[in-house]
Design a protein that fits this description.
Elements: E1 2-9, H1 13-24, E2 29-33, E3 46-47, E4 57-58, H2 59-72, E5 76-79, E6 82-88, E7 91-96, E8 99-108, E9 112-114, E10 130-131, H3 134-137, E11 145-149, H4 153-162, E12 168-172, H5 182-189, E13 194-197, E14 200-207, E15 211-218, E16 224-228, E17 231-234, E18 238-240, E19 270-272, H6 284-304
Parallel strand pairs: 1-2, 1-8, 2-5, 8-19, 10-17, 11-12, 11-17, 12-13
Antiparallel strand pairs: 3-4, 6-7, 7-8, 9-18, 14-15, 15-16
Amino acid sequence: MQEHDVIIIGAGPAGLTAALYCSRAGLNTVVIEKLAPGGQAATTAQVDNYPGFPGGVMGPELTQRMEEQARSFGTEIVMAEIDSIGGQAGSFSVVAGSEQLQGKAIILASGARERPLGVPGEKEFRGRGVSYCATCDAAFFRDQKVAVIGGGDAAVEEAVYLTKFASKVSLIHRRDALRASKALQNQALDHPKMEFYWDCVVTSMNGDQRLEQVQIENVKTGEKTRLEVNGVFIYVGYLPNTEFVRDLIETDDAGYILTKEDMSTSVPGIFAAGDARAKYLRQVVTAAGDGAVAAVAVERFLDHL
């Protein structure tokens, strides 16, 4: 069994920042990641609001730099999925695939995943026209018509990104105004390739072998419209990746981890950071801030253990 001072679960901006701080403080640190380092930020085309990059920075580049910086101080990254967590402060046991690790403290930075829309056709056409990542799939829709569902920062930012590839981008929003930041709204509303369907929801996704159209309905008038599109990108919120710890620590009704100001949870020795915890704002910069706070709190916790 490998022994560590701190085990960090998740290698997004929160986990990688926590790893940087922990390793730099001389703590034996391991990060466990089930997919690939970077988290959601690694699938974001352009990050314009992270300090230090006046012209913006590509999401994959930013998270790659975070990973390299954490590794440079000695962080170990293990690719595996968590099976179980047990033990107590000073002697936690984490089983991840074939790995069994022991740590004195744990930082949960498992992030969140895209919330499905839950309409007929969504599952059937996933990967065949239905996507949750414009950065990943935009190139497949060059010179084609696509729709984006949502009105927040993620939806509007990715819709603007899609205009670089698609011939037309239709944004479908259940309200009559966007919720995204003013800067993003202005980019979208002024873009000649974008059109908007206000007060509308998607009720079904249809096609033969691939997605061909979406059925939309106006929530105020009841009017139904068939929108011909080759692709649809869904941004209607997120679900926390906390199923594996909900019987262990306290969460809110949605499954987000409840923490104190120092990122400590209801279990001594377990801390949380980033999108997996209940918080007001979920951005790369706040995830990094959470990771730094959690790491310093872990260091002080271990000092008093």
